[in-house]
Design brief:
Oligomer: single chain
Shape: flat
Distance between the termini: 78 Å
Radius of gyration: 31 Å
């Protein structure tokens, strides 16, 4: 029996490594593209241009970086927040508690930081990856689900499918030192071999495997289909140095998650046909950035040449070149001035400078990083509603990306609810707000199930919608301006108007109004 178990473990490790090498070979070109995108974003893209002159200028105008930063600023203002609604009215309070639990989980796991990383990956690399799981150490050791960013260069999806949930496997990998492995896996560490899973690959610059005491740890997720139930289950194994460190089937033979899906959500910015990955802003505007910098190089080279005019001297002139080079002298002796001529660099045509500026403005306009999207106006527009209207018309690129992020976030939140339903065992206090009053309640995952006919429990289903967690100041001012006008027209009561307004301290105002302190 023990020999059979060892054989199965060895076969699992062998299968995992074979599939990993297959995926890695397919991803080599993708890793080079991601590295190039990061270099373009940093402005470090002259390294692959051969040097014709070691002293030639290599200017970098941060057009692409500025473009990405401006779109990123729009997306950061549109950070998503989940609104949970029940399918049945009797479950309204449960939905309110679940919404508070999700909000508390994201606060404990610093989701705003994760969201910022996701936006960077989306705009620069063309896609971002979110992972949904359960962390027992969250919420003071009571546990909680999380949504986290996964570095796109540390995860591999099946290159044969466009839907990752239909893929053969998913690999997450990271480098660990032998000291770390010995501390965390003392029984397996002495038998770990240098499996050459990384150091024989051409993309070592990304994996950074430059030390012999560093091993690659694989987080191997795979699907198994049961023809009897016609259901798929997902399992996970940790593998390092040719050793199987853990297998989720030991504790959960029916699948790591009850929902039966890979715990990852991928969001492409500009999807590729036949692939789950996408292209980003760098892929769209890389050529323009390179040409803009090349034109800047031409202008600078012309400026350097013009600042050092050449003096042409013939031998018949009788002047000594070193003598003429000495600007401290007032008198120079020679035979004839006809043999002395200044050679000046001709200036570049004026249309070239205009073309450079037009190219930069074109990148900004096409990417959506124009003046209106930044809230800048030059024509006397001061009303908040008018500024908001201009921004709405000029931030289509950011809103398109936000729509895709929201849909992925909605699916991730739905998965997060299922994780809470399955893994949460402790009562956790959360705060809900009802009619402006805050109330502390205990979250019990058992409340996510309800009793049906015949005493059989079934899970409560929820509708999940996504809204921006925080509106920008112009949108908030326009919203408040509209609510004030409706209240003045008698369409809303003061209490209703305040509930619909967007400002800091609204809960305190509602609380005072409920107590009769403010009318």
């Amino acid at each position: 029996m023990k020999q059979k178990l060892n054989t199965e473990r060895e076969q699992l490790v062998k299968t995992a490594y074979a599939l990993f090498f297959d995926f890695r070979n397919a991803y080599q070109e993708e890793w080079r593209r991601l590295e190039n995108c990061e270099r373009m974003y940093r402005g470090d893209h002259w390294h692959d241009v051969p040097l014709t002159d070691p002293n030639e200028p290599r200017p970098v105008t941060p057009i692409l970086q500025s473009t990405i930063e401006n779109v990123q600023a729009d997306l950061l203002e549109l950070m998503p927040e989940a609104v949970i609604q029940p399918e049945s009215g009797k479950d309204r309070r449960t939905a309110q508690i679940v919404e508070a639990v999700i909000r508390r989980n994201h606060d404990a796991s610093a989701y705003p930081v994760e969201y910022q990383k996701l936006v960077h990956d989306l705009l620069v690399g063309g896609y971002c990856v979110q992972e949904v799981g359960y962390e027992p150490s969250l919420n003071g050791g009571l546990g909680g689900a999380f949504i986290r960013q996964v570095d796109t260069r540390s995860i591999l999806f099946d290159p044969l499918v466009s839907d990752i949930q239909q893929g053969r496997a998913v690999f997450k990998f990271s480098l660990r030192t032998r000291d770390w492995l010995a501390a965390h896996y003392p029984d397996n560490a002495p038998f770990m071999e240098h499996d050459m899973a990384v150091c024989d690959a051409p993309e070592d610059e990304i994996m950074r495997c430059d030390r012999r005491d560093t091993l690659l740890m694989l987080e191997y997720w795979w699907r198994q289909f049961d023809p009897k139930t016609e259901q798929s289950s997902v399992h996970m194994a940790l593998i390092c140095g040719g050793q199987l460190l853990s297998d989720s089937r030991t504790q959960k033979p029916d699948g790591y998650f009850a929902h039966g899906q890979y715990p990852f959500e991928i969001t492409p910015l500009f999807p590729r046909k036949g692939s789950a990955l996408g292209f980003g802003l760098v892929d769209l505007f890389e050529t323009q950035q390179r040409y803009a910098d090349k034109l800047d190089q031409i202008v600078l080279k012309n400026a350097f040449m013009a600042s050092h005019n050449k003096l042409l001297i013939t031998e018949a002139s009788g002047f000594d070149s070193d003598d003429l080079r000495d600007w401290s002298k007032d008198v120079h002796t020679g035979e004839s001035l006809n043999g002395v001529t200044w050679f000046s660099t001709p200036p570049l045509p004026a249309y070239l400078l205009s073309y450079i500026q037009q190219m930069r403005e074109s990148i900004k306009e096409e990417s959506g990083a124009n003046d209106s999207s930044r809230g800048n106006t030059h024509q006397g527009v001061t009303a908040a509603s008018a500024i908001t209207a201009l921004q709405e018309a000029s931030t289509k690129r950011a809103r398109m990306a936000a729509t895709q992020l929201y849909e992925s976030y909605r699916r991730a939140v739905r998965m997060e609810i299922e994780v809470e339903r399955e893994f949460n065992y402790f009562l956790r206090p959360v705060t809900i707000i009802t009619d402006g009053r805050s109330e502390e309640v205990l979250f019990d995952s058992a409340e996510l199930n309800t009793e049906g006919i015949g005493g059989v429990e079934f899970p409560i289903e929820f509708y999940i919608s996504i809204k921006a967690a925080r509106q920008n100041r112009f949108a908030a001012a326009a919203q408040n301006e509209l609510m004030l006008k409706l209240m003045q027209a008698g369409a809303l009561t003061p209490h209703q108007a305040v509930e619909l307004m967007l400002f800091d301290g609204k809960d305190q105002v509602l609380k005072q109004m409920n107590q009769g302190g403010t009318q």
